[in-house]
Design a protein that fits this description.
two-stranded antiparallel sheet; 5 helices; 2 strands; single chain; alpha+beta
Length: 97
Amino acid sequence: MVLLSEISKSELTRKAEILKVLGHPERLAILFLLYNEELCVKELMKELQISQPKVSQHVGLMKELGILSFRKEGTKVLYKLDNLEVREIIDTLLKFL
C-alpha cells in the first residue's frame, strides 16, 4: 500500500490530470483504438466520426501528458498508447465492458 506521505503534491496533480483526460468519452475511445496499433489523426477521425480539430486537440492533450507517443512516417504522424500506467487502467476498464 502506498502512503500518501510518500507521494508528492505534483505527482498527485499529474495523476489527477491523467484521470480527467481518461474521463472524456472521445479520448477514451482514442485510447482504445491506439491500444494495439498506431494510427494517424485521419484514421482516428474516420473511426470515431469526429472532426480533425477535435481529434488533434484530444491527441495533443494526451501527448502533452505523456500518455501518447508519436512518430513520423513521411507526411503522416502516427500515434500510439505509450504509457504503461494508462495501459493498465485501460486493461482494467476493458474487463468491465
